[in-house]
Amino acid sequence: MALPDLEFFRRLAAAAAEQTLPRFRQNGAVETKGSGLFDPVTEADKAAETAIRDLIAQTYPDHGILGEEHGGHGTDREFLWVIDPIDGTRAFISGLPVWGTLIGLYQDGRAVMGLMDQPFIGETFVAGPGQSHYFGRSGQAPLKVRACEKLADATLFTTSPKIFSDAHVGRYERVEKVARLARYGCDCYAYALLASGHADIVVESDLKPYDIAALIPIIENAGGVITTWDGGRPEGGGDIVACGSRRVHEEALALLRS
């Protein structure tokens, strides 16, 4: 069965944007999932995922779907769409335009295509087999990570150092201590910056598959490396490190593993 083309991913992004953009910076209602830590969800999250799922179901009825808001079906099928309609809901409800719609496609458990769309800024990062592209107001361009051969020269991103558990925060801090510059708060946009050559390493913890599925092929096809902290494949989520160069990745893994 043939893979979708990149234009179909952009159609999915447009369908999601029809639901998210009219609700952005409108101070709409916010719910929280479960108990304990504040885990927000909005009407925009739910409506955007529904729009994405409906278009996939119409076009590829034999594919499975796994989404953050509406669960999964057919998750054991050859092709599985993995959706986070708004990655960065905390940013969304705060009015910060660093959230994004994430749509990934797995084939036999491996991430082969992905899209990250930030519709307020008007930027789309999309990947198919062997290719990663940027679409924005300045036009279209291939994505390529930048050369950075030492962690000491690297710009590092994480959503927040407060997201790490007590068991993980010390290992993350070892990496941050070596990096030249650390910045916080970009959610999925940090990975897009890495793929486009503006950052060198992203370190995060306790991610779900829908947090990372779309970003894997974007980074890998731009020349980067993305794994778990123990060097394994990242499709299942967990503790994730993405780097623009293998040398920086090796340095980071040595610190994160120890």
Index terms:
31% helix; 8 helices; alpha+beta; eight-stranded mixed β-sheet; five-stranded mixed β-sheet; 258 residues
Q: How would the global form be characterised?
A: globular
Structural class: alpha+beta
**Radius of gyration based on Cα positions:** 17 Å
What's the helix-strand series? HEEHEEEHEEEEEEHEHEHHEEH
Described by strand count, sense and barrel closure, the largest sheet is: 8 strands, mixed
Q: Strand arrangement, largest sheet?
A: 4-3-5-6-7-8-9-10
The tally of strands reads 15
Q: Which regions contain 5 or more consecutive residues with pLDDT less than 50? A: none
Distance between the termini: 43 Å
- What is the average per-residue confidence, as pLDDT, rounded to a whole number? 95
Q: What is the strand content? A: 25-35%
Number of helices: 8
Q: In which range does the helix fraction lie?
A: 25-40%
In terms of topology, how is this protein built?
Layout: H1 6-20, E1 30-32, E2 40-42, H2 43-59, E3 64-67, E4 71-73, E5 79-87, H3 89-94, E6 100-107, E7 110-118, E8 123-128, E9 131-136, E10 139-142, E11 155-158, H4 166-178, E12 181-184, H5 189-195, E13 201-207, H6 209-212, H7 215-220, E14 225-228, E15 238-243, H8 246-257
